[in-house]
């Protein structure tokens, strides 16, 4: 035997091959390339043109539906065992006690919350000023230099504690002349209004046939419990007599004397 020993066969060194970017490395010889199954666990597809989000959403739903349809179904024997276990549990003593306890808790909660709701005061949102509106009216006759208190109708007209606005209008019309040779001089009427707290407003008699008064103390309590606590008085001024159209001085035998006039009062108010 020579002293050289056993010589091993000479092997070429393994050199790594470069793979161009964007290409997959070739599989080793003798192996089969397999594609990853499509499903929820599959890698996302390569980035492409961005789609409308609703289209992507629909596609994801379809993928999930396909995955559910491909997933394995439970065995019939497993379902039967589960149903049998539930049926056996429902017939047990513990299950019946549990049902009774749950129903008792539900009924007790209903009673407690119902009693609490009955005893809880509901806070009503205050209405803004002017949200409510009402009217009243009055008629009558006033004599010359006299007074006539207005009878408010209806007597139970809504009465607020304070006003957003209050307007009272007095109107009247002169009587027509008794014959074509005379004319009727205008009648003068005025208005006096007194609130329950004692405040008073007066409009002197005028001859234009209309007087309007508006409350300036809106939003302030003026006292009283109803409209009968207010005083609305029509004042009679000079009542114009008939006079000849010619204007000649001296007695007028066909002229009539005017001593009174009818009036109408209307109130409009809100609170």
Label the CATH architecture of the domain at 133-245 and 253-270: Sandwich
Largest sheet data: 4 strands, antiparallel
CATH class of the domain at 133-245 and 253-270, please?
Mainly Beta
Strand order of the largest sheet: 1-10-3-7
The protein's oligomeric status is single chain
SS-based structural class?
alpha+beta
Strand content: 25-35%
The general outline is: elongated
H-E order:
HHHEEEEEEEEEE
| Gap from first CA to last CA | 133 Å
Would you kindly provide a written description of the structure presented here, covering whatever features stand out?
The protein is an alpha+beta fold. It has a domain at 133-245 and 253-270: Jelly Rolls. 22% of the residues lie in helices and 25% in strands. The protein has three helices and ten strands; from the N terminus they run αααββββββββββ. The protein has helices spanning 53-70, 76-90, 93-119, and strands spanning 133-143, 147-149, 165-172, 182-184, 187-194, 200-206, 210-214, 231-239, 242-244, 260-270. The strands form three sheets. It has a four-stranded antiparallel β-sheet with strand order 1-10-3-7, with no helix packed on it. Strand 5 (187-194) and strand 6 form a beta hairpin. The protein is elongated. The protein starts with 52 loop residues before the first helix and ends with a strand. The model has no long low-confidence stretch (mean pLDDT 82).
